[in-house]
């Protein structure tokens, strides 16, 4: 809008009139008083300056003022902003002056421009010498209009610099935008006062009520701007509802829920979310005690906070709502526990309409995000699917289902993704028709047990290393594996961080795993880090009821084989001399899926939670006369 086509005088009369009508001064404010028809008036504004006074100011400054600020002075010749720890009073036409950069901020900002500064950085560095200073009372802060930062509407940008803070100045695109922000601040500063009620507070509270219903009907995109505006006015309930929407849109970002965490209605859903944020940080001495004190300060019973934090720490916490939604959660968790994330999500999706809010301040199943098994399934896309699904007895159209995240088969093992690199080396044992809980007994080290579901991205760091365990021999190759079940019913034990060398002491665990049925072992060595190094080996072995049926190992052009290998898996046919190693690997992985029905859940193995255990050694003890070497790197701090 241009200054010529927009009636600024009407805008400021309405806007400032509303602000003055709602004005509730704080007890500690020393307000400026003026006479109006013989009465003393104490309000944030003053009578407007006449055209002659404004023109005189422009002549003194040598510049015509920007449209919104010029019109403001005609309606109110100054204003008490009441910005906490910042600007308190804006002067009138006779008070404004060029800033002149008395503290030489220009030099400081120019020194930090760098070799290739952005346009806005250059503009900010030059702002200090050319800016117009508006404030007459502040806490070491400045309100500066910049004639070198002009928008298409002729408005000058306004910068607020807090000299005691050290951060960059806050930029507003115009004087109007600044005043509207200060009006919202005025409201937010008084929102908790029970007697602060006016047309604006009533309108914003109505927006919160409307947004809540829209959100429960799945129309979260319409609810979001209503809550965002109400939140900027500090309206009660708005922040809690807004944060829930934002949390499901960005599930990986930690969110706090303030004093909602202490309300008995919401504590079971919200407290685990707060604890989850605590347990995902790097643990430092005293941090848990600090978190418990924070919860106590918000009114959370100490025993509740300690119990939830402990359960989140040891992985035993379970999100356990009631009713049909709770039954779906239990069913989905059992699926996701073994890697069937897509199937689990379909169960949750079908039951979302049955979720019931425990009270009016919850509009989504927040507690789901804190479940160690189900929480990771909620990607940003699925979070939006939750928000777009009508809930809590409300009706509306169901959203288009989010596509499954797990591709079929095994080829994905060779692919890169935005959030990870391809596996450098991997090995896996599949056992047909057995429960995953039996795998530790079949191929685990002595006393091996399944852990609670853990983050598969970091679990391998806790794996066995010979130089860390006194009970391991240097030649042993035990490994920490993630455990699950494929869509085709095979139990699997997967190591996605294998860096060991497949050598003559290798003993396939396929025979031990096949005690009651068929077992398959695949091992793809990590590829050499430098060109021209050794070829990476690819191994397959298949056994049934304790007997190896066939096996082969491919390294470059060399193939070692045993048993009667099916033609469809013949390494000579799949690993061709004219192709790259990865070409042969891709064909073999496709054949294993087609012929044996092997697959692995990508999401669970790259971003989810699965139980783990430590296997027995994949290498045998050296025979008499055999020589082997081990190399370990141990980093010491100086």
- The coarse silhouette is elongated
| Low-confidence blocks of residues | 33-42
Major sheet: 8 strands, antiparallel
Q: Assign a percent range to the helix content.
A: 25-40%
Task: Report the span from N to C terminus.
Answer: 64 Å
Oligomer: single chain
Supply the helix-strand structural class: alpha+beta
Number of helices: 20
Report on this structure.
This protein is 34% helix and 15% strand. The chain is elongated. A hairpin with a 6-residue loop joins strand 3 and strand 4 (87-90). Helix 4 (105-111) runs antiparallel to helix 5 and helix 10 (267-279) packs across helix 12 (302-314). It has 20 helices and 20 strands. The chain is of the alpha+beta class and 638 residues long. The longest helix is centred in the N-terminal third of the chain and has 18 residues, at 199-216. The strands form five sheets. An eight-stranded antiparallel β-sheet has the order 18-17-16-15-11-14-13-20.
Keywords:
638 residues, alpha+beta, 5-stranded antiparallel β-sheet, 8-stranded antiparallel β-sheet, 20 helices
Sequence-ordered SSE layout with sheet pairings:
Elements: H1 8-22, E1 33-36, E2 39-42, H2 51-61, H3 67-75, E3 79-80, E4 87-90, E5 97-98, H4 105-111, H5 119-130, E6 132-133, E7 135-138, E8 141-150, E9 156-162, E10 170-172, H6 175-190, H7 199-216, H8 220-232, H9 238-249, H10 267-279, H11 287-297, H12 302-314, H13 323-337, H14 341-351, H15 380-387, E11 426-432, H16 439-443, E12 454-455, E13 480-485, E14 490-495, H17 510-513, E15 518-524, E16 538-544, E17 547-555, E18 558-563, H18 571-574, H19 581-596, H20 602-606, E19 609-610, E20 612-614
Antiparallel strand pairs: 1-2, 3-4, 4-7, 5-6, 6-8, 8-9, 9-10, 11-14, 11-15, 12-19, 13-14, 13-20, 15-16, 16-17, 17-18
